[in-house]
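User: I'm writing a short methods note and want a consistent example. For histidine kinase, I'll paste the sequence; you return only the structure tokens, no commentary, since I'll be parsing the reply automatically.
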Amino acid sequence: MELKDVKGSTYIIESQEEEIKRIALELHEGISQNLYSLYTGLEFLRTGVEQDHLKDYTKEMSDLVSRTLQEVRLLSVELYPSTLKTLGLYAALKSYIKLFTSTFGIIINISTVGNEMELTEQKSMAIFRSCQEALINIAKYADTSEATVHFTWEEKRLKIDISDHGVGFDLQEIIRLNKCKGIAAMKQRMSIAGGELCLFSGEGEGTTVSFILTIQK
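Assistant:
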């Protein structure tokens, strides 16, 4: 990628992130709060209903609102993880994984080795977005109930491995069928951040996505 292309792509992504941040805050502070009020109101009504069919109905409605609230919260975190700036990359991804597991039912075991180093917001966001893409791909395609995320902090390098033991895929076939937009997006984000992506997969062998970022002290 030429320097002018990198600058152009960086500007576009940064502009997109600002708009995404605005939408995420509206979801969190507006829609989420309204849904929570609806949920607590329905729960209050259910305690005062005597007819069994109405009690069952209000429970169904409160359960639906609860699930919708959970989905909106996940979407809000997907769009803009507020903990990324305050608590760091590892904590932000760990928080996201909790919502991811409650939404998709896939257990993600996350671990870290080494001392976490401070990253710029641009680099943190690039890695966070790439990890999101990898996890969503697991939910969509891996057909598995469990996966792992492992951070390795070295003196001047961060490596994140996201692995599953799902169905895997033939990478060359994916490229031939032009179904690799998600992979391309992850590669572009990592390239702009000064990092790289490595992907290993095989049919019936699961998939491992590795994000490698050089850290300048």
